[in-house]
UniProtKB/TrEMBL annotation:
PANTHER family given in the database record: ALPHA-D-RIBOSE 1-METHYLPHOSPHONATE 5-TRIPHOSPHATE DIPHOSPHATASE
Family membership noted in the UniProt record: Belongs to the metallo-dependent hydrolases superfamily. Adenine deaminase family.
Protein's name according to its UniProt entry: adenine deaminase
EC numbers on record: 3.5.4.2
Lineage: Bacteria, Bacillati, Actinomycetota, Actinomycetes, Mycobacteriales
Cited Pfam families: Adenine_deam_C, Amidohydro_1
Gene Ontology molecular function: any one: adenine deaminase activity
Catalytic activity field: adenine + H2O + H(+) = hypoxanthine + NH4(+)
Species name: Nocardia tenerifensis
Domain Amidohydrolase-related per the UniProt entry, residue ranges: 304-366
Catalytic class of the enzyme: hydrolase
Domain Adenine deaminase C-terminal per the UniProt entry, residue ranges: 432-564
Length: 585
């Protein structure tokens, strides 16, 4: 039974503070006290009636307190000339893995806020898992100054990849509002940790997210998540997934930051074609690079894409505002330009193609013409760790590609093929037949030359776990590139053509806490260090983008042609599937 506080539980000091507040609002509207800001000459989008009207917004204490106030009565300290621009609610990313973009919270804000995003609902499970025994203290340090960020952060305690003790401790933290995505495979076997975490989420009366696993579960087991009160699901990839998700009553988050660039178009086409009510959907990145945000945009981009594909503009905007707020029971604070809501406002010159000219958080102008106005200046260096190498005994021959099976005539070998875009719409890992000559695998498939890939356990207790195969997603003529991810298990991925080069590359990366390294003939050509537990960079936005692009530039000189997300982000998405499909211990 969810607990609801009665008025007798309310401390007298809180009642007194609320009394002061309501009297202040009355005083401002009566002209007896000053408001903070009046925004004039706007075309305001009312997401509730789905209309646009000319007007003004009066702001005080970070919130809108009046629409079209009587300016002969009200007083205000500042005014802002809206230039006749459209005023829409601040945009909301409904589901983001807070470490997947590799930027710490302040650097991430430098990228997303100029695109109009003023609220993020963020998962922290990989960060907490990477921090291990230090997870609780690390989370406190990560959240310590969240109110100084130029966007609102609502976070979730890990629903998987950490102990129940970590989950319980994080549920008590600010700004945590509920339980993060639950594992969608382990509950098929009645995992006790999943039961305990689900119980903690319900007992704390918070939101519960899920990774629904429609492609992995029977129809009977699909009932489990909505039946225990899960609110949101982002695990949809195609029309059939979406239909099931909304039928089972889940707020369905349409993601655009992972997988093939065609995935988001596939899902938006389905919504438009089937004429499903937009109120079922919210927009989210899930995993996205800051580089892609800078090049393409964030929630503003996917709203514009939805409109381009035939969705009415106001419906598309509501998926990125009101419907997202409502799915987390936050629509009394977010998602509309109505009295009592936060004055998180985007001024755009078009509703059909979102172009954030001005962005306000709580009535403060934080970005103009896609540039953040002030540096955030939060120091996260307390999260930096010292490297702990684990590959001292790794030998090059351990990375050699051996056949799973050789054909009867000895001309073909069966090997594993991994696909960087293999989640959700293509098979991530499959067994294939390739040529076998002179006792060696020839890395050719369907007329294309492929690189090799090795998945290597960092810290071995006994025999080191290594999986070798072929790889689609990076194609280099020489050299090697490697990445590392510590959650839930510490593993490397290295791509190349020569075992000695790949081994040397891994040992270079092993000298860092984590990150990405490109080598040629043993020489380091580019490096991106991730000093915060191996999942975040101790850099501002400019430094992170420069390091990320240096990886792509170095790989281009080795023959790779990259499109979409930077290579480091593409490679890091592999670890999600490597864990999900059992390729990591």
């Amino acid at each position: 039974m969810l607990h609801q506080a009665s008025t007798t539980d309310t401390p007298p000091a809180e009642v007194a503070a609320q009394d002061d507040h309501v009297r202040m609002i009355f005083g401002i509207l009566e002209g007896e006290q000053e408001a903070d800001l009046l925004l004039r000459n706007l075309n305001i989008l009312d997401v509730h009636s789905e209309t646009v009207y000319p007007g003004t917004l009066l702001v005080h204490g970070e919130r809108i307190i009046a629409l079209n106030p009587d300016e002969s009565i009200v007083r205000f300290r500042e005014t802002f000339e809206g230039e006749g621009l459209y005023a829409i609610p601040g945009l909301i990313d409904a589901h983001l893995h807070f470490e997947s973009q590799l930027a710490h919270p302040a650097a991430f804000g430098e990228a997303i806020v100029p695109s109009g995003t003023t609220t993020v609902f963020g998962e922290t499970l990989d960060f907490a898992s990477a921090a291990g025994a230090e997870a609780v203290d690390a989370a406190r340090a990560l959240f310590a100054d969240h109110d100084r960020l130029p966007y609102r952060l609502y976070a979730f305690a890990p629903g998987k990849k950490t102990s129940t003790e970590v989950t319980e401790a994080m549920l008590a933290m600010d700004p945590v509002i509920g339980l993060g995505e639950l594992a969608h495979l382990s509950y098929m076997t009645g995992n006790a940790d999943d039961f305990r975490k689900s119980a903690l989420g319900r007992a704390n009366a918070g939101v519960v997210n899920c990774h629904w696993g429609v492609t992995a579960l029977s129809d009977t087991l699909l009932n489990y998540m909505p039946a225990i009160g899960v609110d949101n699901n982002h695990d949809v990839w195609n029309e059939d997934d979406i239909e099931k998700s909304i039928r089972y009553g889940l707020n369905t988050q349409i993601k655009f930051g992972v997988g093939s660039p065609e995935v988001i178009r596939t899902m938006l086409r389905a919504i438009v074609k089937r004429r499903w009510p937009a109120e079922n959907f919210q927009l989210c990145a899930d995993n996205i690079s800051v580089d892609r945000v800078l090049r393409q945009g964030h929630i503003d981009w996917v709203i514009s894409l939805a409109i381009e594909m035939g969705m009415p503009p106001i419906k598309a905007i509501k998926m990125g505002t009101l419907y997202a707020a409502r799915s987390f029971h936050r629509d009394r604070d977010l998602g509309s330009l109505s009295p009592g809501r936060f004055a998180d406002i985007v001024l755009t010159d078009s509703l059909s193609r979102i172009n954030p000219r001005y962005v306000f958080k709580g009535g403060k102008l934080v970005a103009k013409d896609r540039r953040l106005l002030e540096p955030v200046g939060i120091d996260y260096s307390v999260l930096a760790k010292e490297p702990r190498p684990g590959l001292g005994d790794l030998r090059a021959e351990q990375l050699d590609l051996a056949p799973i099976e050789v054909s009867d005539d000895g001309t073909q070998a069966k090997v594993l093929l991994f696909d960087v875009y293999g989640r959700g719409h293509l098979k991530f890992a499959q067994e294939i037949w390739v040529p076998f000559r002179d006792g060696a695998v020839v890395p050719e498939y369907e007329g294309a030359q492929l690189n090799r890939i090795s998945i290597v356990q960092r810290y071995a207790d006994g025999a080191r776990h290594i999986v070798n195969g072929l790889f689609k997603g990076v194609s280099i003529d020489r050299g090697a590139v490697s990445t590392f991810w510590p959650a839930p298990s510490a593993y490397f991925v290295v791509v190349g053509a020569d075992s000695a080069e790949m081994c040397g590359n891994l040992k270079q990366l092993d000298g860092l806490v984590g990150g990405c390294v490109v080598t040629e003939d043993g020489d380091v050509k580019a490096v991106l260090p991730l000093d915060f537990y191996g999942v975040m960079a101790d850099m501002d936005l400019a430094g992170l983008v420069e390091a990320t692009r240096s990886i792509d530039d170095a790989l281009a000189k080795l023959g790779n042609h990259n499109e979409g997300e930077p290579v480091v982000n593409k490679l890091l998405t592999l670890f999600i599937s490597l864990d999900r499909f059992g390729f990591m211990k």
